[in-house]
Design brief:
Order of helices and strands: HH
Largest sheet: none
Structural class: mainly alpha
Number of strands: 0
Distance between the termini: 19 Å
Radius of gyration: 20 Å
Strand content: under 5%
Number of helices: 2
């Protein structure tokens, strides 16, 4: 019976960690993509080069997001291990 509250507390930590991870990675993907779409569309309209700038901006957003996700995944891996130890 004494283990049950500890398990519930640990489960809550894992759920909170999972939600934090989803939100953070979601924003990491969405913000650069949306910004790139607006910037690319603006530049395409300004220079009449449809869809050149949009594609270039989206590729750059993908590369930036991928780099940020790798960095954050390493940080979250360490944080996950610390939850496991506590």
């Amino acid at each position: 019976m004494e283990n049950k509250p500890k398990n519930q507390a640990t489960d809550r930590k894992y759920y909170a960690f999972g939600v934090k991870l989803m939100v953070d990675f979601g924003f990491t993907l969405a913000i650069p993509a949306v910004g790139a779409a607006f910037l690319g569309q603006y530049l395409d309209e300004k220079y009449h080069r449809y869809p050149l700038f949009l594609i270039l901006c989206l590729v750059n957003a993908f590369l930036i997001s991928a780099r940020m996700i790798v960095t954050k995944a390493k940080q979250y891996g360490k944080e996950f291990e610390s939850i496991d130890k506590s």
